[in-house]
Amino acid sequence: MKHLKEIGLSLAISAMLFGASDIVSAQGRRGRGEERSQENQAEREQRQQQRQQEQQNRQQARQQENQAAQQQRQAEQQQRWEQRRQEQQTSNQERQQRWEQQRQQQQQASQERQQRWEQQRQQQRNNDQQRQQQIQQSREREDRWQQQRQQQIQQSQERDQRWQQQRQQQQQQQLEQQRRQQQWERDQNRDRDRNRDWDNRRDNNNWRQNRNWQQEQQQRAQRYNQDWQRRQSYLYDRQRILEQQRRLNQLRYQQRYLDQLRRDQLRLQQWRYNDYGPYNYRYNRGGTYYETNRYGAEMLQRAINDGYEEGFYAGQADRQDGWGFNPNEAYGYQDASYGYDGYYVDLGEYQYYFREGFRRGYEDGYYSRSRYGRYSNGSYSILGAILEGILGLQLVN
């Protein structure tokens, strides 16, 4: 714009100088055309000024447009810069948030790892303590078991000694009773000699029958004593097996059963023949009827009841030891002679009915129920209906 103004001024000056020269020359040549020239000059100047003014206006308009465009471009640039700055701030904030989240996650993961490590360490310490406690408890149980075993062995030895002493005493008493019996028989022989007439009037048939019964019972007594020696040797073998299996409850039950057998043995050493009357009862086994007297019938009933009670204790002991269900393996079932004290039925008959009660008692004891029997007055007994179904006892006359 400065150059344009200078050019315009130069042109104006040149025009003015040119016009002045023209006027001077025209005045010399023409006189009357001065005014017209001045007017033309004035018009030219006016037109020139108008053109200059228009150029200036156009230049100002272009300047204003350029300034507006520049301001708009600057505003747009400022707006784009602000947007980029905001986007950058947003991106920075997002990166900062992600970094914070990652840092928090890392801290949390580190804390979790630390907690897991502490838990594992604590669990390891607890496991070590439990192992130490288990080892200690196992040692204590082993010590207690050894002590119990020693005590049981000692008690068994003491019982054997007492039993041997009692047996010796019983043998001495038996010898004394035999001596007295012999003396009594001698006295009876003298009495029979004095009362020969009365003896002749005895019923010979009944006397022979009683003598046969007496001989049969004596034979049963001999077989029982022989079988007792065999069962005694088997008992000690079974005791060692139970000790190896550590079945303490079954071992205690077997020891209890053995004590009862020893009491029976001592009592049976004093056995004497008694006449309990004729065979007026019968019982059914396997579809066949067998006859016995009143005492034999009562003894078979006791065999079933005693078998049930012993079976209940044996099943209870196996359950407490965590042993499998097996009544036939129990010593009470294999022996089956507890309570046999009269010789009025064969031992095999007694054992058969003892085992019938034993199996049912073992089942009730092992499963802790009362399907076949009940508990009353401090002992277990089989139900009457079950007993009648097993024995089928009938009175003949």
Strand order of the largest sheet: 2-1-5
Class based on secondary structure composition and strand pairing: mainly alpha
Order of helices and strands: HHHHHEEHHHEEHE
Count of runs of 4 or more consecutive helical residues: 9
Extended strand count: 5
> Per the principal axes of the C-alpha atoms, what is the gross shape?
rod-shaped
Largest sheet geometry: 3 strands, antiparallel
Helix percentage range: over 70%
Task: Outline the structure in words.
- The strands form two sheets. Strands 2-1-5 form a three-stranded antiparallel sheet. A two-stranded antiparallel ribbon has the order 3-4.
- The chain is mainly alpha-helical and 397 residues long.
- It has nine helices and five strands; from the N terminus they run αααααββαααββαβ.
- The chain has helices at 2-29, 34-194, 196-200, 204-245, 248-268, 294-321, 331-335, 347-366, 384-391; strands at 281-285, 288-292, 373-376, 379-382, 394-395.
- Helix 1 (2-29) packs antiparallel against helix 2.
- It has a domain at 212-397.
- Mean pLDDT is 78; it is low at 194-211.
